[in-house]
Amino acid sequence: MGFFKEDIAKIKAFVFDVDGVLSAGEILLNEQGELLRTTNTKDGFALQFAIRQGFPVGIITGGNSEGVATRYRNLGVEHIYLRSKDKKADLADFIEKTGVSRDEILYMGDDLPDYEVMQAVGMPTCPKDAVHQIKAVASYISDLKGGQGCVRDVIEQTLRAQKKWKFQDMKNLANS
Is-contact 48 160, C-beta < 8 A? Predict the structure, then answer.
């Protein structure tokens, strides 16, 4: 593997885990026992923007929440794998459907179920609070925790490196 900034210039697709990446590593239960998660709106904006720039985006999760699927479908994510028992097999399906190669995929995971799929992509990444085994195989560890903007971090850096982040030249927006 090369340097992070060089490697992200080759990225053509993004794939993310949900719990601990797109949401914090905590799940709330309501009175009916339904699982509740929080998501980061800045992550959502970056996902939408990447999709508008032509990047295929996938989500692979062991969870089974239609709420998760609905949230990301509404953002434009077409490739959503719920109840994943074999993340590598789901990654292979994503590759087949999108036509990107493994080397062109940035994957972000945070825990042991992500280990094998992280070894199978060109750019394995993780949030700051990932388990140490995942950090050991990551080419990049975000300064941000899962559910707190780590997805925005890797998408923005990738698009900046490829000169596709149209906000690069904006000055101080607070004064506008």
Answer: no
pTM: 0.90
Q: Are 36 and 29 in contact (CB under 8 A)?
A: yes
Residue 114 marked as a ligand binder: no
Q: For 4-175, give the CATH class.
A: alpha beta
Q: What is the pLDDT along the chain (176 residues), one digit of tens a residue?
A: 456 677 888 999 999 999 999 988 766 666 776 766 778 889 999 999 999 999 999 999 998 888 889 999 999 999 999 999 999 999 999 999 999 999 999 999 999 999 999 999 999 999 999 999 999 999 999 999 999 999 999 999 999 999 999 875 554 444 43
Question: Cα–Cα distance between 121 and 173 in angstroms, integer?
Answer: 36
- Say if residue 103 carries a ligand binding annotation: no
Give the strands of the sheet with 123-126, arranged side by side: 79-81, 57-60, 13-16, 105-108, 123-126, 140-141
Q: How many residues in total does the chain contain?
A: 176
Domain boundaries, the chain: 4-175
To the question of whether residue 169 is assigned a binding role by annotation, the answer is: no
